[in-house]
Specification:
Radius of gyration: 14 Å
Distance between the termini: 42 Å
Number of strands: 0
Order of helices and strands: HHHH
Number of helices: 4
Shape: globular
Structural class: mainly alpha
Helix content: 55-70%
């Protein structure tokens, strides 16, 4: 019997961010493209919200991106995303 493992994007990115922050250090230039990607995701989610997309979907995406931003120590941007989407979880 073969076991298959599926990686959802949520767990895959979370593992990647925690691994990179541990190995490379948080201020590493190697981690900069990943942080830029997270920021572009943040802007895309904000545009979706302004465009009138489903609030449940955009809130779930915002919650996931906020967690990733906190893991890479981008607290200011995570806080702004929390205020915009009125997320109740603590940073």
């Amino acid at each position: 019997m073969f076991l298959t493992f599926t990686f959802t994007p949520k767990t895959m990115w979370k593992r990647f961010s925690s691994h990179c922050s541990f190995v490379c250090g948080l201020c590493s230039p190697k981690l900069a493209p990943f942080i830029e990607y997270l920021l572009s995701l943040t802007r895309a989610i904000e545009k979706r919200r302004e465009g009138g997309a489903s609030s449940d979907d955009t809130t779930a995406l915002a919650r996931r991106v906020k967690r990733l931003l906190v893991e890479v120590n981008e607290y200011d941007r995570a806080r702004r995303l929390s205020k915009l989407f009125q997320l109740k979880e603590a940073l």
